[in-house]
Amino acid sequence: MARASKTPQRPAPVAGAAAKPASSKVEAARPAVTSVRLSGPGDSMRTTLWLLVLALITGAIPIALAGQTFGYWRIPLSAPAIFSSAPVYDAPLAKPQSMVVNATAQVETVPGSGVTVAVLQPGFPVTVTRYATQGSQRWALIRWAGPVKTAGGSGWTPTAQLTAPGGHTTKPIGDLAAFSPAIWRAANAAGDGFAATLYFPASGYAYHSANQSQTVTLGQQMIPIALVADYGEGLAAHQPSSIPQDVASGNSQALLFLYAQLGGAKGMSAYVAHYQMSGFHFAVDPTQSTATIQGLSQFYTALSQAPLIGPDDQRQVFSLLTGGSIDARAYASASQIGSGALTATTTQNDKGYTTIVAGQLQPTNGPAVIIVAVSADQPSSASSRTALQDFYKSLFATLG
Fold first, then answer.
1. pLDDT by residue (tens digit) across 10-51?
2. Of 232, 206, 225, 202, which is closest to residue 305 (Cα–Cα)?
3. pLDDT for the residue numbered 327
4. Deepest of 15, 247, 335, 390, by most Cβ within 10 A of its Cβ?
5. Strands (E), the chain
């Protein structure tokens, strides 16, 4: 049996009224859409009460979010006061911790600042003196030493780039800023064409600029390489004594004669390859041969460890270089060079002038240093020399 409808009966239409179209029945059946107003007095009071409840329960940040949601204010996109995470520093450690860098570490002034003070390579030994948290990342305040008292530095690096020293071989290698901020400033002032490497054989500390793979024309920097090969291969003992002396004095004919005896470009390539030195390209004209800055550093490092020639022959070669025309007294004094040898040469090509000052410093007081410094593509020979003179002044000020 059908249920009786409880819907009230629609009254009969008033006589004379126009009939409504059929579609009006469908429209009348649709539910009415209610408009939500956020600015009315009642709504405002309810919203304010709601925000107060949020503040009591969860704090200020939901107030800010809710206020933006309801259109009362707009939070700036950066919102530093609310969303930025300043470093939270732990108390300094009672006892510093010895650690080792396990990845290339960009050491920063402040955790998360992005301002780099030095770059340390894997294996560099450091000491942690404090920790901090920046955002979700842990940071460590590290200090590191150098081959002399005035070398070294400090800064912050992520703890993920550090590990305990047990079982790890230390290799203290870094950029020039890791050696000394003063050295870095001098290198930076020398311009884009500057590059350098430093190596301290006694302690193993090594430092280099980012562009150590830069290739330079050797010019008369070929002279020490040829002399070392001459004595190392035993050829000098069978030559007139004037040949090595003439080569060291810059006699181009004597250099060509010696270069031919060493086998020319092919013989010299085999010679450096035998001693695992890379980055050299020898030309028909020995002075047009090229090498990377790192390659030159490998040559002088091998010379300091005496696998290339014996100690007696090394002293003979250094004596020849110091007494020749290519010594570097404009960059270092006799006491600073000591029993080592430093050679300085300037070449010119279509890009400008390039000066190379390289060799070994073996002062009486102070550690031995293998150094290669280059000022490339300068507008004049004077400007390329001046850039290196300023760098060497800063170097000796740091070495003490």
1. 444 443 344 444 444 434 444 443 333 434 444 545 555 554
2. 202
3. 64
4. 247
5. 88-89, 97-101, 105-108, 116-120, 125-134, 137-144, 153-158, 162-163, 173-175, 194-199, 206-208, 215-217, 280-281, 290-292, 341-349, 352-361, 369-378
Cα gap 219→354, rounded to integer Å: 10
Closest CA to 355 of 345, 340, 370, 363: 345
Contacts of 188 (CB under 8 A, 6+ apart): none
Beta pairing, strands 369-378 & 194-199: antiparallel
Q: If you ran DSSP here, which 8-state letter would residue 102 be given?
A: -
**Block residue for tokens 């190596």:** 199
* Tokens representing residue 285 in the block: 């004209």
| Cβ neighbours of 96 (radius 10 Å) | 15
Dihedral sign, Cα of residue 260, residue 263, residue 268, residue 272 = negative
pLDDT band at 129 (very low <50, low <70, confident <90, very high): very high
Q: pLDDT tens digits, residue range 65-81?
A: 444 444 444 444 433 43
State how far the Cα of 361 lies from the Cα of 350, in Å rounded to an integer. 32
Whether this prediction's pTM lies above 0.85 is answered by: no
Is the pLDDT assigned to residue 293 strictly greater than 50?
yes
